Amino acid sequence: xxxxxxRFGPGVTAVMEGRGPATAAAVWxxxxxxxxxxxxxxRALRRYALAGGVLLAVLAFLAWQRLPTVAVRSVSVQAxxxxxxxxxxxxxxxxxxxxxxxGTLAYRWVRxxxxxxxxxxxxxxxxxxxxxxHLLWTFRGRGTLPARAELRIESPGxxxxxxxxxxxxx
Length: 170
Prior knowledge:
CATH topology of the largest domain: Immunoglobulin-like
Low-confidence stretches: none
Number of helices: 3
Strand order of the largest sheet: 4-3-6-7
């Protein structure tokens, strides 16, 4: 046993594992000699999970605000060629072509008899690049009346289109 040192007490295990020599202060205070233990990876992830989640939520909100919404590319209005007969209803159809993005179209129909539909809205889903808007206009009475229906898109942007027909009831 010449040249061999035997140690007893706290810290002996650490020395035997090769973590380095035990100092008297480390053994006295119950610490382990050698480098500090490496933190467990799971603890570090939990520590930053809340901050990371908040950061992702803020970035998602900012991206959502900046994403392009629906845009109108063209508008056309078609009225029945023959026009409605006595007591019939004309179906005036507007075709609005969009960029395929989601959003809301705000519009109104204005008729040549001086009436307006008021503000209407149509929700456009993603991928839908054509929207059809209908105006049902019912006529009553005898006579002939040239009629005109105009679609006014108020949002997004300002766009108008119109079509005319003749109501005939002998």
